[in-house]
UniProtKB/TrEMBL annotation:
UniProt-listed CDD domains: CBM6_xylanase-like (cd04084), GH43_Xsa43E-like (cd18618)
Species for this entry: Actinoplanes auranticolor
Domain CBM6, chain residue ranges per copy: 342-465
Name of one Pfam family that matches: Glyco_hydro_43
Alphabetized UniProt keyword annotations: Carbohydrate metabolism, Glycosidase, Hydrolase, Polysaccharide degradation, Signal, Xylan degradation
Protein name: CBM6 domain-containing protein
GO molecular function list: carbohydrate binding; hydrolase activity, hydrolyzing O-glycosyl compounds
Gene Ontology BP terms: xylan catabolic process
Gene3D superfamilies from the UniProt entry: Galactose-binding domain-like, Glycosyl hydrolase domain, family 43
Signal sequence segment: 1-39
Family: Belongs to the glycosyl hydrolase 43 family.
UniProt cross-references to InterPro entries, sorted A to Z: CBM6 (IPR005084), Cellulose-bd_IV (IPR006584), CenC_carb-bd (IPR003305), Galactose-bd-like_sf (IPR008979), Glyco_hydro_43 (IPR006710), Glyco_hydro_beta-prop_sf (IPR023296), Glycosyl_Hydrlase_43_Enz (IPR052176)
Annotated positions for site Important for catalytic activity, responsible for pKa modulation of the active site Glu and correct orientation of both the proton donor and substrate: D165
């Protein structure tokens, strides 16, 4: 149970708080937010987030943030949060993969950090107060997965000099650097193990040429540099983007010909704006675009200690300089639509109104604390020629409620209504379905929750079925692989395992190992679900665990005692570094009585292991 607190976006109490106290709290601290569709910045509406640190990995942007406790009057921060997106507008909540409790030696202040990926592991550098010394120190968490959980890599600080805000950068030659500091700016050369270093911390000279001149006569702070360095390299030029000139801070940047300087001040990335007197930068390139992450106080109840992370898309000028950006509520454009015909996590959200998230007993997170007229917006959902039914995984310790499937706005076209029953517990899950109509083309989806008073039900995931199979939708069971190996069997030799480390979407993908023939792979019995003479479209994402095999999806049909094979997708080379989409359309027909039909993924040759995710056969 969470500590009693008011909800960022609504001011309403969280589950477990007395209504009266909560109402007073809400009225005093947080203006209620009314109204329909919201824009998409800030990125997270369920908690206050700060100090963004994006990381691009396997076709997704992972966003690591700090977490300002509700109604804070100081930087009261006890854990860090993780989110991810493949489209830059809908973000999946991965909960809290690291907290102060991760570091037994830390007493408080889970402040601004950064995650990097090396040696198959993820390293999260963070500043916290060392209980033994009372000073700020840098700790490092490590995990095999970008979504954690992270453990303390050292059991002690990596480095400690009372300063904050680590930024990690790995140069092309493999040398890694850790930068940090307020009021000074430091770096140290990390060893390849990423949890030790060579040489001592070195101070970067804060010259006005390097970091700009601070207006006014501020003792010991002649330059604009304040805190929060974000160091990276682009086209051979090294960038240090930092929080400048307290307070209010703006985001400035410097460049250098090498990782240790000499730095030259280049100007403003984002002026001070709004009610947060700090700001904090994170920059990545993703899918051919550049993105600038920052924080502000734009949520209801927001301010200097109740901040929220936001993002803008930008284009470097031809000479490599960064344009000056303003904070927007619209955020960047969506780069790919959402597929409603594969399972989508309910905690994948463009804008949440009223709800919260919590860890789910079924893995990942679920949407919780749902009350009458709360809603979730999922932006840019590609319904294509149409959806016929909607399915959701729900749980309720009360008497449940309804999910209204609406299009375009929270009061837009009602495509269908599903009833979520009481299930006897907030984590006692059941699957409900209802018919939908009018959901065609690409639209913003609103799941509007209705019912009586109090908390109604939780939602773990949802999925639509399409018209293209006359209502049958995706022929495959567990197509998104979120239910582990359910529905899938190894064809011939091999072992299937549902892993969380390498996923294309959601929290799980399916890996086959121990293949002894090219025809071995993950398969599914689809005998009772096929229509003779129909054209089926197949999509499945594949990546190898070794080598660069050529993969394809195949259907084995046995009719009247004879087995034939339908190649469902052209073969495509897959590799270990990213996901490849196998996609194709093929006619499926047979003569006589069909006794066995198996959908499977195989390779043209070899026995390399591979992983699949987000499969559809419809
Ligand atoms: O979030 C706590 C501190 O505020 C960070 O460490 C700084 O960068 C500033 O954003």
């Amino acid at each position: 149970m969470r500590p009693p607190s008011a909800h960022p976006a609504t001011g309403r109490p969280r589950r477990g708080i007395a209504w009266v106290t909560a109402l007073l709290c809400a009225l005093a601290l947080v203006p209620a937010v009314a109204g329909p569709a919201r824009a998409d910045n800030p990125i997270v509406q369920t908690v206050y987030t700060a100090d963004p640190a994006p990381l691009v990995h396997n076709g997704r942007v992972y966003l690591y943030t700090g977490h300002d406790e509700d109604a804070s009057t100081w930087f009261t921060m006890r854990d860090w949060r993780a989110y991810s997106s493949a489209d830059m507008v809908n973000w999946t909540d991965h909960g809290s993969p690291m907290s102060l409790a991760t570091f037994s030696w830390a007493s408080k202040d889970a402040w601004a950090g950064q995650v990097t990926h090396r040696n198959g592991k993820f390293y999260w550098y963070v500043p916290v107060v060392n209980r033994a010394t009372g000073r700020m120190a840098i700790g490092v968490g490590v995990s095999n997965s970008p979504t954690g959980p992270f453990t303390d890599a050292l059991g002690r600080p990596l480095v400690e000099n009372g300063e904050i805000d680590p930024s990690v950068f790995i140069d092309d030659d493999g040398q890694a650097y850790l930068y940090w500091g307020n009021p000074n700016l430091w770096y140290v050369r990390l060893n390849a193990d990423m949890i030790s270093y060579s040489g001592g911390p070195t101070q970067i000279p804060l010259t006005t040429a390097g970091f700009g001149a601070r207006p006014g006569n501020v003792a010991n702070r002649p330059t604009l540099y304040e805190e929060g360095p974000w160091v990276y390299k682009r086209n051979g030029l090294y960038y240090n983007v930092f929080a400048a000139q307290c307070c209010s801070e703006f985001i400035g940047y410097s460049t250098a010909p090498g990782p240790t300087g000499p730095w030259t001040y280049r100007g403003t990335v984002m002026p001070a704006q709004g009610s947060s007197f700090t700001n904090h930068a994170g920059i990545v390139d993703f899918n051919g675009n550049s993105y600038f992450f920052y924080h502000n106080g734009a949520l209801p109840g927001g301010g200097g200690f109740t901040r929220s992370v936001a993002v803008e898309r930008f284009t470097y000028r031809a000479d490599g300089t960064i344009p000056t950006m303003s904070m927007t509520t619209a955020g960047p454009p969506q780069i790919a639509p959402v597929d409603p015909f594969v399972r989508q996590e309910a905690e994948t959200i463009a804008w949440a109104s009223g709800v919260e998230t919590e860890p789910s007993s079924e893995g990942g997170m679920n949407v919780a604390n749902i009350e009458n007229r709360d809603h979730i917006k999922v932006k840019g959902v590609a319904f294509g020629s149409g959806a016929t039914s909607f399915t959701a995984r729900v749980a309720s310790a009360t008497s449940g409620g309804r999910i209204e499937v609406r299009l375009g706005s929270p009061t837009g076209t009602l495509a269908g209504t599903c009833t979520a029953p009481g299930t006897g517990g907030w984590q006692s899950w059941t699957t409900v379905s209802c018919g939908v109509s009018g959901a065609t083309g690409t639209q913003d989806l609103y799941l509007v929750f209705t019912g009586g008073s109090g908390f109604l039900f939780n939602v773990n995931w949802w999925q639509f079925t399409s018209t293209s199979t006359g209502g049958g939708g995706n022929v495959l069971t567990n197509p998104g692989l979120e239910d582990g190996t359910t529905g899938w069997q190894p064809r011939g030799s091999g072992t299937l395992a549902a892993g969380t480390g390498v996923v294309r979407s959601g929290t799980r993908a399916l890996t086959v190992t121990g293949r002894t023939g090219a025809w071995n792979g993950p398969g599914q019995d689809v005998t009772s679900r096929l229509t003779n003479g129909k054209a089926y479209t197949t999509e499945v994402w594949v990546r190898s665990t070794s080598g660069t095999p050529s993969a394809k999806a195949t259907l084995a049909l046995t009719a009247n005692g004879t087995t034939s094979y339908v190649q469902l997708t052209p073969a495509a080379t897959v590799n270990t570094g990213g996901w490849t989409l196998l996609s194709g359309t093929a006619n499926v027909s047979w003569t006589g009585t069909l006794s066995q039909a198996t959908f499977f993924v195989e390779t043209m040759a070899g026995t390399d292991g591979f992983t699949i995710d987000d499969a559809s056969f419809r």
